[in-house]
Amino acid sequence: MARWPAPEHKFVDAITVQWYFHPVTPLLRRWRSLEIVFTDYAPYLWNAALSGCCSQSRRSQAPALQELTLIYRANDDTKQFCLFAGIAPRLRTVTIDGVRLTWLPSLFGNLTFLDYTHHGFSVEHQAVHDVISMLEISSRLVELRILFPPKQRPPPPTRSQPVTRRVILRFLKHLHLRVEGSDIPFELAHLMTLVFTPSLTSLRLIDVDHRHPAFPSLKSFFYVCAITPSLRFLRIEYGWYDPRMMSSILSALPHLRQVIVRRSHMPDQVHNLTSRDRKGHRTRELFHPHEPPYIVQACPNREHPRHKHPNDAIHVRLPVL
Hints:
Elements: E1 4-5, H1 14-21, E2 33-38, H2 45-50, E3 67-71, E4 80-81, E5 93-97, E6 100-101, H3 105-108, E7 113-117, H4 124-137, E8 143-147, E9 167-168, E10 174-179, H5 186-192, E11 195-196, E12 202-207, H6 218-224, E13 233-237, H7 246-251, E14 258-262, E15 269-272, H8 280-287, E16 314-320
Parallel strand pairs: 2-3, 3-5, 4-6, 5-7, 7-8, 8-10, 9-11, 10-12, 12-13, 13-14
Antiparallel strand pairs: 1-16, 2-16, 14-15
Helix pairs in contact: 4-5
């Protein structure tokens, strides 16, 4: 696998990016993987990197492409890109952060792995609508990782109507819900009321910022978002953890076999559960013996409350031929 790193601490602009891609774009139909990661800001970087992938000619199709990674968190260009003339039938693994893509069945309909960080150019109900539309197309996912990062200057909402359309991810086994910032975003909570995952076996609740107190909306999140009873593995980190809620959560998960809890200034707690451990009194002894439990109840029809949230490098992995 070829790797194409730019020299460290070298300013990269759109012209430089075009120069990098000029010799490999003619070989696009032979690419098996493509990874582009911009770590610092410069204007029009996606235009420069993806222009050769966006024509509608047969030469822009990617019949051999299996893996795609596009990351540029600092992107402020709202342009939407339609890649590979809409043709990438072997594409299975995608990581997206900071770019808007036209989500076509002929491109993303066969995905089994998606790591998706929302670009932030849509918010609230429109953002939920955008992601639900993507998941309807990528309904064969086996693993999904999702994050709605806070934006310093979020755009005004463009959709006032709540999303009610639901999606079934029948093959999903692994789900990662990630949070950056002080609380669980409205978009993530509302999205999870619309996604049905009957085969889910592993759930990871990840707090990127490693917050010490529990998220303020944690209780309401579990109140509106039902956890699939098929779950066997649960990992809870930092702001996702409140010991008073563990008894109710675990009692609703009859097949749960292992819980890993990560908290600040403590080693990971690994609990291998038996049927006796899932009983309320035993769960309280395991996780927090001195606190009364919360009552956590699934209620998918309730709305989640809204929450407010308060450049010189490039890394590119050459297309693998």
